[in-house]
Write a structure and sequence with these properties.
With about 110 residues, this protein is mainly alpha-helical. About 65% of the residues lie in helices and about 0% in strands.
Length: about 110
């Protein structure tokens, strides 16, 4: 949280945007684990994920499952699956199956 709250600190003067995106993503995962799914969504939606779009979409799906928005979670997982990122497609398909999606139709 400190990194996101103090981006102008002399310590962080040369930190690139990717570092801040990863920090935001990891903090969102922590918020979900702490039962603060809406706070996680707020963190994720406060930035443009760029190359991390798939990872952001997957974590967004996790947060949405936690607050009971299953259709939106399914959509987020599907976006993550087609984002062509480092996300694990097997895990994403399992998450989609848990939500009742037919993963043979997805990618």
């Amino acid at each position: 949280q400190w990194v996101l709250d103090n981006p102008g600190s002399s310590f962080l003067q040369e930190v690139d945007e990717e570092f801040l995106l990863i920090t935001r993503l990891r903090l969102a995962k922590i918020k979900i684990a702490q039962g603060e799914a809406q706070a996680a969504l707020d963190l994720l939606h406060a930035a443009q994920p760029g190359a991390f779009a798939g990872s952001y979409a997957e974590v967004e799906g996790d947060a949405l499952v936690n607050i009971g928005q299953l259709d939106a979670a399914r959509s987020a997982y599907e976006r993550a699956l087609v984002a062509d990122t480092e996300a694990n497609p097997v895990i994403l398909r399992l998450k989609l199956q848990d939500l009742g999606a037919n993963t043979q139709d997805t990618l």
